Amino acid sequence: xxxxxxxxxxxxxxxxxxxxxxxxxxxxxxxxxxxxxxxxxxxxxxxxxxxxxxxxxxxxxxxxxxxxxxxxxxxxxxxxxxxxxxxxxxxxxxxxxxxxxxxxxxxxxxxxxxxxxxxxxxxxxxxxxxxxxxxxxxxxxxxxxxxxxxxxxxxxxxxxxxxxxxxxxxxxxxxxxxxxxxxxxxxxxxxxxxxxxxxxxxxxxxxxxxxxxxxxxxxxxxxxxxxxxxxxxxxxxxxxxxxxxxxxxxxxxxxxxxxxxxxxx
Length: 265
Hints:
alpha+beta; outer membrane lipoprotein receptor (LolB), chain A; 11-stranded antiparallel sheet; 2 helices
């Protein structure tokens, strides 16, 4: 009787074990279609970005130059897959999240140089909504937020237990598969997902980097474009009799950035 009872218990536990095995993932890669057109005058940017999450310890979000998604797309030529050169071997990295130490490193272009910024992983104030939709076969739930000057709509799935997402977005109860600015000036849409139990060993580069703060970055950004404005004006003056002054209103987030820059703090 006891053996029969034990057999029945084990029989019912097998599907649960199988489900745990199915849902267990050490490595996750998601490719996102990235679109950006922040002003009417700016050119649209279409790229493929990838999020690589290593056991929820470290994740790297970068521009993808060898996209799995684009291998089977007829319009692959419409995407820019060239690396952003000049970042000390990190040509493709956009953000890197260190979940253990609650730190995020971001690489920002400033004129022809790059700045590496370190800060705490942002605690984004998400509002969970009831609306749902399907992305890549996964049931997704809607969430909204305002992050650094822009309103966003996101869709996340609880079917993939990684609390991560593209760029600096994270903090929802599941993997973020879609994020779009309310006026579609910026969007991230998942187009390819790869899950594996093979965990690649990767060294955390944040600990070896000399990072500046977000406030220091804004100061460097403003100074750089002030210098650029003066340089342009000097060149115009050399070639024109009339005095012409070209201003670069960095206090109004110019050139426009995804994270709206404010210089009053």
